[in-house]
Fold these 3 entries.
Entry 1:
Amino acid sequence: MAAPAANLTINPDRLWDSLMEMARIGPGVAGGNNRQTLTDEDAEGRALFQRWCEEAGCSMGLDQMGNMFARREGTDPDALPVYVGSHLDTQPTGGKYDGVLGVLGGLEILRTLNDLNIRTKHPIVVVNFTNEEGTRYAPAMLSSGVFAGIHSQDWAYDRVDAEGKRFGDELERIGWRGEEEVGARKMHAFFELHIEQGPILEAEGVDIGVVTHGQGLSWTQVTVTGKDAHTGSTPMPMRRNAGLGMARILEKVEEIALSHAPHAVGAAGHIDVFPNSRNVIPGKVVFTVDFRSPELTVIEDMEARLRTEAHTICDEMGLAVEFEKVGGFDPVAFDAGCVTAIRNAAERLGYSHMNLISGAGHDACWINRVAPTAMVMCPCVDGLSHNEAEEISKDWAKAGADVLFHAVVETAEIVG
């Protein structure tokens, strides 16, 4: 399998201009984007992407979950396509690059191949997966999950947003429900370019993250019940303070995660306190502990220790505690061959690189179930994402897209 020559690179100005043009659709209030899935803005972004793909000579496929597939033909009609892409939907206060860089970086591969008149044995398909963010319709990575057989299509169609609108109905409304069976496509390989969404690459001064694993995730909802009481007139020894119980449990969450350093993490991001009044001792708290690790045995250990420690704390304080597993997925080990293609591409192009474990979920994590898959990451300023202030540089975008180009084209095999 011949590798592309080191002087073959994408057009960074064209890629950047495309990112900025897409960002004009669904602008946020502070310089980012609000282009949530299955909104009118999502439909407009999809139409722009389709126009660009057709201008690049691609045919467009559309499945029943609204996943878009722009295909550049290969020379071998029997060869399975190499897929590349990510998502165009954003958070309500999202940035201009999360997901979008992966889709438009894939489009830039096709444009560059056209510029250079290069043919590949395998077709190359650029994909936009519907509802990766999961902010309007939970869970995240919904459509890639249906593609990979994680969720049923009927279940996905029945998801509702905060206004009670069904996913399936909104997909029909915006006109982006296709007829193609979801998951019927077979892939030779899948590659995804993404901003890191973390601070490591920028802090280390490294151009490229070679993603070897995706963290597994465990969400456990914890309910601690005590007794509402007046904050001023209830003696300290007679209190059954659910809020204090939660605080002591969260100290243990920190200890548990740190005991599996450096890759395990843990915290509670969702917390409800009842009755949430200034002069009432909390009688109940409900919070979700988020544990993540690239090793399943570590996740299982953290879950078990959370339950043990919480029971001990609550028994000593006269509190009741209940647990409910409300979400999670197992760690992902990406395909060794695809990972090597990314690493070799970075070395061939002279970009500094390091192995990374993705702390966030991505479409690649589900597609890895059905095809050889890997990810390449570029830095983002201060590791900030899911925020309108999310920022990358043109040089970082070029480096990531160059590595993506070489890994994809090498895997698709240059002809001639």
Entry 2:
Amino acid sequence: MPSFTYVAREAGSGREIKNTIDAATESVAIAALLNRNMLVVSIQEKISKRGKTGGGSVALADLVVFTRQLATMVDAGLAIVQSLQALADQTSNKVMRDTIKDVCTRVEGGDNFSAALQKHPKVFNRLYVCMVDAGEKGGLLAEILSRLATYLENTARMRKKVKSAMMYPTVVTLVAIGITIFLLVKIVPVFADVFSGFGAKLPAPTQYLINVSEAVRNYFWYGLPMVCLGVYGWFAYIKTKPGREFWDRLRIKLPIFGPIAHKICLARFTRTLASLIRSGVPILEVLNIVANTCGNVVMEKAIRTASMDIERGEGISAALGKHPIFPSMVIRMLTAGEQTGKIDAMLERVADFLDEEIETTLSGLTSLIEPLLIVFLGVVVGGIVICMFLPIFKLGEIVGQNKR
């Protein structure tokens, strides 16, 4: 749909407003502005690049701060425009500042707050827009923004815990690989030259290590591009629809890490579902949003199938209970919530329980991984060192062989 830039004056106050409006034609745009009691001074079709109004994406932490501060200001009685202007002035992130300013301008021009947020899908996803829209319609914007801020804070906290838990083993593994390659390429060849002067058969572990060293040195620059190409191909494959489904189905079945990935998806599903139901969003719209935000294709398919069953009149727990990806504990809590009329409260408890389980599992896993990685690093480096010094330990035998 074309976008038009206009200059107009409010009929009551005479205040001049500069903004943009989306309309099929120029006459439709003028009619829409007249309905807002604005007298059009000038209007022309916008010729800038398509999608420019969408802006860029921002970090979750910036969105959390914005939502929490906006909820506090609105709850204190400040008008939405004043709150947005204050937040735009104090935000250091340029993309976030430009986005807030654009939203503020659109609200000043007569758009609903949720409609203005919808123009920036990279910053405010569908979940965010729907919750704000429900808050506007129900007159509970401050309360909804506070719930949304809490939801985003929980999401950010869980992401940080998962990242910090995975950071240590990743760094240690990379260091181990780097040290191993350095020893094979630089140190082992020096010992190999020394041992070649013995003129005797070397111990099997030492000879095997020297062969590996020669293979790495000879084929490293051929193997490195192949490894990089393989990694790139794998990531490209899991971005495709069949690849994403294969990976999502596989990762929840992996030992140790599979249950964690499954619980993370379930926690996201239950918390998002609880927040949307509590905000008053229609259930079919809720399920559509949750399917898009759960983060797993297998779960997404199950939710969409359940949504069709619910549309035909089935209960939420009965529709979701047909799919094994939802454990019996979640289904039973949903059933209890339907019977008591407190689905959102039950789902919130399930989400809190899953978050606690994830944190406990991650803490235990981190404690277990640390000694295992140290042992792994010691075995790799120590094994190479032992293989290199093994001929020196058996120097007498080697010299005896040489004399014979």
Entry 3:
Amino acid sequence: MHHHDQGPHAEGHGHSLVEDMAVMRTLLARRDALKWFAGTGTLALLSGCGNAESSDDVVIVTDVTPTLASTATPTSTSTATTTATTCIADPTETAGPYPADGTNGSSGSTANALTVSGIVRSDIRASFIGTTTVATGTQLTITLTLVDVDVTCAPLANYAVYLWQCDRNGNYSLYSAPTESYLRGVQVTDAAGQVTFTTIVPGCYDGRYPHMHFEVFSSLTAATGGRHAILTSQLAMPAALCNAAYADTTLYPESATRFATISTSSDTVFGDNTAVQVAPQTPTFSGSVADGYTASAVIGITR
């Protein structure tokens, strides 16, 4: 089923229906044809919808003691401690209108943060293009573990993960916050298949359940070279985490009100996924508003 990620202020993009459909057809084609725009650091304020892709296929693997290892590069290794004995393939979701990965453009320009020096970083709270503004909000440190669904949940080393999200007010850097480049970053998985990002709890904007976007690439070179992702998906923020963070209406002025009107089941992206799919898409977490939160999720990859 196709998903439409309605970003903040999407109703003000100023495009006609015909233009929007043309943009969507172009973006939908990117999974079938690698049509990448030149964009070495060229950034533009863009609007329009992202590609609308999803999958309701569920692949489940259960194995208590993984013993197989892949010989492919990047590697799927069973020598590192496997963090999951049951894993499913994460569903493909829309990248939305604000990926800044070189897949959308306007007037011949592209928004591509992946080709800009500085994108490879663990702490993604500060802008790294033009300004050094730090995104404020409740701190969240999230660890993602990539596992190979086809090789008994073995961890996947040397893959690249691009993570991006909105700020506390629901704006995306390089788009609705056009002068900023915060809350975007790339990390490479270690031998345990893990990457860790320090960020903030994303705000809640109209039309969407609070979430983070991510893309998985086969290598760092593939990611920073603007080559096609092998998985584009999203993470749903735990409701308890959102309720705790959004209680501070000074820091998150609109999020509590917006969050009260949305759920994963009514969301345009997570709403048609099964409970089996939504569970791993929702990170587990611990911590507090005062001390910050830590979260983790297992990302199942099929190759």
